[in-house]
Amino acid sequence: MNANIAKLNQSILPIREKLLQHPVYAQIQDLKGLQQFASFHVFAVWDFMSLLKSLQIGLTCVQLPWVPVGSANTRYLINEIVAGEESDVDEQGNRISHFELYKKAMLQMGATSSNIDSLLDLIHSGQSIETAIHNVDIPNQVKEFLMFTFDIAQNAPLHVKAAVFTFGREDLIPDMFTELLNKIYSKHPEQVSVFKYYIERHIEVDGGHHSQLATEMVVELCGDDLNKWEQATQAAITSLEMRAKLWDAILN
User: How far apart (Å, rounded) are the C-alpha atoms in residues 236 and 169?
Assistant: First the structure.
């Protein structure tokens, strides 16, 4: 393993362990608990896509005329991740983004999507992302979480964006959550099958192939610049702290 990656992982370990042991997981004991969790966790699934696209915009050419941007290896890494996140397959083999798959799972389980739908409606109406977040009726901790993400997506240098994407936004799925999900699925298979598929797919794709690609992207963008590695580490830590705020909001 790259020495700088090992050092970064060591630095984020305390907050990562705190998140893995967050009490929110223990509260998801039944279908109602899962519905409440999903109605707020969906914001993390959605803004993750915006962070991803901001990386693609910065690392590739997405305007006309096309010209080569950066290294071909970095372009490959981000485009491969975008293809998987934006056009994966659902449980029936149909192409779908991970956000749309999550919304499909929410619909099946009966979780309300009114909050995320309201935010998207405000954006579609022409409001800036900052104004839309301010106006949507969600807890302040969720608003802080979203504002941090979009500040990174719109203003941070590429190596910081990549670090937040790779290490700060990794969805933490402890064994306890998987066990609780399986328990709920055994009682409500007709309502939880899509969500169960989403989680399994997330572990398989995001936690495996995409995680390796994203880590390689951070290594390439930070290179041997110790200042960049320090900035990347601090941004990843802050992002995990913001995730803890989101978890606190769900718990409350």
Answer: 8
Q: Helices 31-59 and 114-124 meet at what angle, rounded to 10?
A: 30
- Of the candidates 252, 182, 246, 197, the one whose C-alpha atom is nearest the C-alpha of residue 40 is 246
Distance CA 49, CA 82 (A): 9
CB neighbour class for 23 (10 Å; exposed up to 12, middle 13-18, buried from 19): exposed
The 10s digit of each residue's pLDDT in 205-236 is 766 678 889 999 999 999 999 999 999 999 99
Q: Which two tokens stand for residue 12?
A: 């984020």
Q: How many CB atoms lie within 10 A of CB 49?
A: 16
Which residue type sits at 198?
Answer: Y
Task: Tell me if the pTM is above 0.85.
Answer: yes
What distance in Å separates the CA atoms of residue 75 and residue 78, rounded to the nearest whole number? 6
DSSP 223: T
